[in-house]
Please model this.
Amino acid sequence: MRRPQKPLQALGLILLLSAFVFTAKAPSQSTSKMPEDKRIVHALNRFTFGPRPGDMERVRAMGLDQWFDEQLHPDRINDNAMESRLAPLRTLKMSTREMVENFPPPQVLKAVANGRMTMPRDTAKRAIYESQIARLQQRQEKKQDLSTQEKDQSADSTPGNMDSVSEQARQKHAEAAMYADIDSMQLLQLSPDERYKKILSMYPDERLDLARRYRGPKMLDLVNGMKPEQQETIEAIINPQIVIGGELSEAKLLRAIYSERQLQEVMTDFWYNHFNVYIGKGPDRYMITAYERDVIRPHALGKFRDLLVATAKSPAMLYYLDNWQSVGPDSELAEYGPQRRQFRRGRFGQIRMAPPQKRGKNRPSGLNENYAREIMELHTLGVDGGYTQKDVTELAKVLTGWTIDEPRRGGEFKFNERAHEPGPKYVLGHTIKQHGESEGMEMLEILARHPSTAKFISRKLAMRFVSDDPPQSLVDRMAATFLKKDGDIREVLRTMFKSPEFWSADAYRAKVKTPLEFVASAARASGVQVENALPLVQFVNRMGMPLYGMQPPTGYSMKADAWVNSSALLNRMNFALALGSGRLPGTSLDAQELLHEPAPSSSEAALSALEQNILEGDVSPQTHAVLLKQLNDPKITQHKLDDPPRPPNVGAIAGLIMGSPEFQRR
Amino acid sequence: MSITRRIFLKNGALAIVGTTMVPSFLTRAIYAAGTAAPGKKRLIVLFQWGAADGLNIVVPHGERAYYAMRPSIAIPRQSVIDLDGFFGLHPAMGAFKPLWEQKHLAIVHAAGSPDNTRSHFDAQDYMESGTPGVKATEDGWLNRALAGVNEPGASPFRAVAMGGSVPRTLAGPVPAVAIGDIRGFGVGGGQIASNTFEAMYAQSVDAVLHGTGNETFEAVKMLRAADPEKYTPAPGANYPRGRFGDSLRQVAQLVKANLGVEVAFADIGGWDHHVNEGNVQGQIANITGEFSQAIAALWTDFGDLAEDTVIVTMSEFGRTARENGNRGTDHGHANVMFVLGARVKGGKVYGRWPGLEQEHLYEGRDLALTTDFRQVLGEAVYRHLGNQDLAKVFPGFEKSSGDFLSLLS
Model:
């Protein structure tokens, strides 16, 4: 499978190819074609999260067209290994309702504490609930303490008094912390199973102390060696809010690194970003797992219309862009309030008209244009797609009543006739007759098939797959397919794949990787084994791309300038070094494996092999010279002057290559 | 005192520039130091995430309605730090009192974003982009403000953000450095790895990465040469413990190391007081105390450098005029902004006060807005940073320099 290359040949190839890569960006060559042998590298760079060792050979054996066709049909690709890798992350399969139950938000906890809901019987769940309720109560007590303190102080507020109070509190706190440290040392010495049982048998207050001490990265010590569901329970005890987002982010990285259905994952990332939902907005935290799983991924290579409708009806989007609380100004709900019956029975059975209720102060009673605007601006037509403020307002009326049944308890989409604005609406030159929920469907069909949508989506796809500023000829061709094939995303991608612009020499390695693409591609290129993806997730966050954490609905930029800044670049270099040298927790790298041969004849040979295996040889002569100089530097190869030269540190060199300018592009 | 300091710096600069083989980052640092005198302006932007309760920060204690609407969370008249007989500071903000008396601190009340959204994330986004109501804006107002100021060979520290990433306020074409912790700003794999990366990026023919790589390593070296590890704040600059105090101490560190900082951004969260806001004591007291002490410490720490510095604060929107059923406040509309600087005409509350009687409230519940936040920021950009192309900095904003509050001399 792996074909060791003779170093000299490899070096020759590198020089040859790098000469190509680093002259190819001159504008005079913009129409020149990519060399045949670079086409596979290019396709792997664009349709996957980066080549793995052996990918080139596999695609070559299969034929590039055949491989692309297979990637367009993910259902034909066996991905069982991926599924078993994800099996421990149980929230990935949960419904939103189950998630609310397992990782209770404050509303549910308060309901249980007040007896309005029952405490779960299951020991693990119970432990989560009890800990969180105890936390809520402690907070409450703290507030009460503060307010009694206030009263005491207002009675006798000498500064000296205040100091001695806080001094006592500080001492008490320090003592408690000391004893807690001893307990926690003992806890860590237990076997994982005993540790788990011990934590579950603690009093809620004790568990709270524990939670306080093990927030953040230290939690990994506490759950070390536990079974996945045990780990999940302990994490939920410590902080239920982080479990869902943590598992989803881990899964995103694991899929990017290991899934065989690479194009599907690339497109899932693309569409999630296009139809962005922010994890931090209220109950969206509980909704985005189902959103990505049931709304985005199944339609990632399907019809755009289906994807648009699925997002429009998803609780995640309805909540994120506020449509769930948009109310027609002349609707029944605005007129009469939430009370369902307009007639009430009097004491003796006679029917009386109920007086219209006054508009409550917290009840939504008007249009919310947020979603109506974004669906045209960001999801379909584009900001210059030819719509007016009037269209936004009218579309908002069309979409009134599209809401969520119990948004904080994991409910689903529902159409609320009473919130729907009556009368005809006029959007984008169409007259939409009054017919309730289907008005919205009618408009989504119009938007999905609009020529502006075809252009907007095609341009965005070309920006993801070809270049930051894709040629208009390519965009037009893709848009024509979009319109002809009824928004079939698979066909639009196929048109792109067959276009000369996709294969033009100046598209080769022209795209700067996003942080996700960078981290995933480094993990793929180095063949690292990822046991725990959270440290990788943290690095992606630090590089400025918190997963599911994009607050504005625009999603992340796909252009270079968003990702190239000092702190991000330093983080990329630090990540590359940590990964290469095996210092990244949760990952293990066999550096020698990376050489694809047991013992290179020289350090030059080792370097060439690494350049070939990590970057397909696309290393500039400049970078190669810098690395070579390092390899031969006696300060590095020898401890002391008299020592024999040490063999090169393969992992460190791999890290330097992954942190190089060349590896930042795909 | 500032004169002696400038002469010393100039002489020192000459002495070093006179020798050969001076690394460019050092000469630049020296020039930056030399120009710390008039001409080199700094704007520091502080964001209060979560919608601060402006009515309990700068208290309209002359308003009867204020006390009527806030039976449990109003700040009693006898407790406020009176400013002008009508407004007063929250009693925890004693650190601001001397700045007000020295007329360095100006207040703009009933200010903010005119957009009616009460969503944190939309409102923050609008304020950071500087384009209320327009979501498609890709860059931030502070970056556009710098983009208009010609600066050949700018320092990599021209625009800095304290935190893990560049905030939306600073997003855009002008390079901005995000620094979470000065001590962690560098390559962690030792000097050899750092040098290797530096050489790779210095020699790269990839224009974008070459440029940013050079800026990065120049910044890393400038920072190392400035030796920020040994930083001691000026006497009397007592930063409160916590992230905000740390951020502002690091801003002072960078500015005083003469790294060429022109704009800096820092933020403080924790203002979303829906429940038990408190009054003279409690949540609002704790956070306004931390907020004002940190800013006053920064001011003290700057010493002479404060001369060329303007500090401006903002929050995405204000809170309801009435307290809610949980002794807290809900999302509202207009808010208060602070502007601090040696050339600020301070000691005055700017803006028209709309009043808190029912008929004066915005949508019947919130402090109405009488000053667009862009009027305040625009004046700082125009008069202080010297960028007069306000149409580019705040596209779609119709007010011009004639509509400034004239709070800068």
About this structure: DSSP finds 13 helices and twelve strands in chain B. Residues 1-39 of chain B have pLDDT under 50 and may be disordered.
